[in-house]
Amino acid sequence: MDDVLKTNMNLKIRNKSMKFHSIEPVLNRYILKCQKLEDSRFAKSLAKEFRIGLKVTSGGSLEITSIRPDQDNIDAFTLNFRFFIQDNEPTSIRNLKDIFDSKFVTSEEKKNFTDMRKKIEKYLTSKSNLKIFEKNITCGELMNIFIFGDLSHGNYKDKTDKFESWMKREDVREFFWFKFCEIVYSMLEAIRYIRDLISVIIIRHKKT
Question: Is the whole model's pTM more than 0.85, yes or no?
Fold first, then answer.
């Protein structure tokens, strides 16, 4: 159904006679999903306390200490987070490009959206500073492996295999979970920024 909605939306955007109400449901849905992320226990937990450290025990061994959201909170957050990164969702940041290319958006709003997309791309292609077999994994790769290799129930065996191989490493497991939380929380900031752009667009067109 979402694929059909996306296709119809793209066709309508190219039609100069289209009305704003034809794309408004997608924009409202984006705002709703963003609100759910903001209200999640995951986001509130990270805003309250979020840290990782190393401690040497009395026996001389190294112990990893971490304060981060628990698994249930991460799972619940991911269910809504996927609406912004999956290409089969009309609310994905990539698919929103069609709306920001439409007549309903000012040139400044389009530029702001485009600039934010570039920042997201730069961030996700940056190094996470976590290495497996000397490979420095990017933030985007780590995020996708966690979401589509474990937290999502899709058929992504290659990602699932990679995720499970990471989790077998007790020396780095918690660092990977910590970094994943950091990445998606940073993405939430970008999602909020785009939400604010969308809110202005909706308010402007309700007045016309």
Answer: no
